[in-house]
Amino acid sequence: MNENAVDPDITVALEDGLTPAVITVHGSDRPGVSAAFFRVLASHRVQILDVEQSQFRGRLNLAAFVGLEADRLEVLSEGLEITMQAYGQEVTVELKDHLDQNRPLSTHAVVVLGDPVTASHISRIGQTLADYGANIDTIRGIADYPLTGLELKITVANPRPGGGVGMRKALAALTREIGVDIAIERAGLLRRSKRLICFDCDSTLITGEVIEMLAAHAGREAEVAEVTERAMRGELDFEESLRERVAALKGLDASVIDEVAKSIELTPGARTTIRTLKRMGYRAAVVSGGFIQVLEDLAEELELDYVRANTLEIEDGKLTGRVIGKVVDRAAKAEFLKEFAEDSGLHMHQTVAVGDGANDIDMLSSAGLGIAFNAKPALKEVADASVNHPFLDEVLYILGISREEIDEADRGDGTYRRVPLPEREPVLEDTVPSGENN
Predict the structure, then answer these.
(1) Is the distance from CB of 182 to CB of 171 less than 8 angstroms?
(2) Which of 82, 249, 313, 431 has the most CB atoms within 10 Å of its CB?
(3) If one looks up domain 196-383 in CATH, what number appears?
(4) CB under 8 Å to 56, separation ≥6 — which residues?
(5) Tell me, what's the pLDDT at 96?
(6) Where are the domains of the chain?
(7) Residues taking part in catalysis
(8) Beta strands of 249-368 (E only): which ranges?
(9) Buried b (16+ CB within 10 A) or exposed e, 92-118
(10) Model confidence over 62-96: pLDDT tens digits?
(11) What is the C-alpha separation between 402 and 269, in angstroms, rounded?
């Protein structure tokens, strides 16, 4: 082996007599380009150390880190240029005076979601990352519906636990300032190990608040809604507020429960999200401060693995204004998540929790990944990620699942559909002074 192989940081060794080089090819993509490229390299005893190829909107980029005989550089370059020119490709060959270290693994994934996402947004995000010494390694598009999604793989200068706290806070502040969602998570196997997702129900899995829908039948919707809002902000003890609201339902005919159950509307993207995760081997759960009698049919329809909620007491076909058994409150939600994980044979770092209110704080804090969905400030403060658009599909994008993968699977089993979205007003790019935020 030559002297380039003795660097202790290098795990790939060059064969004797070879010099490291980087060869790049770019141009319009067409069949046969890669085969022709490697055919030329093969004819010149080239050793492959690393390769990366990508295709973007019909444009091909192919790069190879290789070992070659230095005295054959000229003839190799000429052969490549002649061959690749026939395919409409441009070629560069650059010798290296040493072996570069192996390509470092990105430490974090940053997902950007917006409608729209502009160049100004990415400029601001890129500058914030740079301010904290983070390098953007790769960027790829992961969604074009129902909003635009980009995934940035980054390397953080200080990836140790707690080392990125300042950057996370800065990105959270930037989210509020520029109006796009920015989620950051550790990259690697832990990100791909999630296998259980647990949803809050009201205003998360479904669009409304079930107790308010029931209260509307009693003519006390406004009164109950005000108590709900205070509880969700964390201003009231949940159990106390629940009992107060349920008391307002006293005397309602039990048939109202079925009426409300039939009128429930799922949050846009809920079916797609659950269907996609179930395909991937996830277990899915809902834990609700609402009522089991309303959720049972929905849970069966969505094929959820676990369902926990409060139970309304019914006597002689009427609601008594009381709940039966232990109340599903903030602490109980976290306990149920742990119960589901244990039953599934999973560790807590393999769980995802999604919710919107203060009642979900313990659950999101216990999960491996806690996602605040159009949430109250109290929950956003403790969540790992926060999304502020009304589409549950965003959860999939935060997990690194692309729209292309979702749609391909849906086409395969006949569930593919895209609901037309309302047209939005065109958004003009913010003007960024020359030389700023580069």
Answers:
(1) yes
(2) 249
(3) 3.40.50.1000
(4) none
(5) 86
(6) 14-95, 108-192, 196-383
(7) 200, 202
(8) 283-291, 306-315, 318-324, 351-355
(9) ebeeeeebeeeeeebbbbbbbbbbebb
(10) 999 999 999 999 999 999 999 999 999 999 999 98
(11) 14
